UniProtKB/TrEMBL annotation:
TM stretches of this protein: 5-27, 74-95, 107-126, 146-166, 178-200, 220-238
Pfam family, one: CbtA
Record lineage: Bacteria, Pseudomonadati, Pseudomonadota, Gammaproteobacteria, Enterobacterales
Keywords linked to the UniProt accession: Membrane, Plasmid, Transmembrane, Transmembrane helix
InterPro entries on file: CbtA_put (IPR012666)
Protein name per its UniProtKB record: Cobalt transporter
Length: 254
């Protein structure tokens, strides 16, 4: 049964990846094009000989064209990532089903998908938001990647702790109050983590604030769309699988 749920999760992820690609292609790619135009403008300024040489090297090292990157490249990347996230959601759903969380198959899937959005995108992005081209020093990419994955691990700890706190307090405070307490615990931990983690700010002073805002908004919206579609589709698939008479016995033990 878990194998069938895993397949359903990956199918939901593939469909979500196609929808997320459409969203990103319409709302996100125009912001990337604007950022690339800005990068090309500043690259033609005689900043330093070393800086000009660096941009020439980057142009020479480009393997795929911009059209390929924004088309087939983006589509394949979104599908692979969404399928992986859909499979992971299915496994976590199987672990939580009838053990914790909402009793409804669809509500549990949607709750887990929103938790996935918080862990993979929203919480790390609050401290280290996504940046368009022309933002960021290439020499610090390793350091920034390490910080992002550290924040990702912290986000997992925050969500798990908040969920466990709400589950533990439910018998004492009731469902609503326990959920509020769990959310307060998570918000407190997130605030502390954002204060303690190092800050990175490599945005050029002349970079457009409007472009930066629109790029980050489209990036977060694309991720939210992907996770919502995965949760809704997989919830429907899981509910249909649970309602089949032949699978009801196995479902109680997933």
């Amino acid at each position: 049964m878990t194998g069938k749920l895993l397949l359903n999760g990956m199918i939901a992820g593939i469909l979500a990846g196609i929808i997320a690609f459409s969203f990103a292609h319409v709302f996100g790619e125009p912001q990337v094009d604007r950022a690339i135009s800005f990068e090309e403008k500043i690259s033609h300024k005689p900043l330093t000989v070393e800086g000009s040489h660096h941009h020439v090297e980057e142009a020479d090292e480009q393997v795929f064209s911009r059209k390929t990157q924004s088309g087939v490249g983006l589509l394949s990347g979104m599908i692979l990532f969404s399928a992986a996230m859909g499979g992971a959601l299915a496994l976590v759903w199987s672990l939580c089903w009838q053990r914790t969380g909402p009793r409804s198959a669809r509500a549990l899937a949607l709750s887990l998908s929103l938790a996935g959005f918080l862990i993979m995108s929203m919480m790390p992005g609050l401290k280290y938001p996504p940046n368009p081209p022309a933002v960021g020093d290439p020499s610090t990419i390793g350091y920034r990647t390490a910080l992002y994955f550290s924040m990702l691990l912290v986000s997992i700890l925050i969500v798990v702790t908040a969920a466990w706190s709400a589950h533990y307090l439910r018998s004492r405070l009731g469902g609503w109050n326990a959920t509020l307490c769990g959310g307060l615990v998570g918000l407190t931990m997130l605030t502390v983590a954002c204060v303690l983690m190092p800050t990175v700010n490599e945005i050029p002073e002349v970079f457009s604030a409007d472009l930066l805002w629109r790029f980050r908004l489209s990036a977060f919206s694309t991720q939210l769309a992907m996770w919502c579609v995965i949760g809704l589709l997989f919830g429907a698939f899981a509910e249909r699988a649970m309602n089949k008479p032949g699978h009801r016995y196995q479902a109680e033990r997933c």
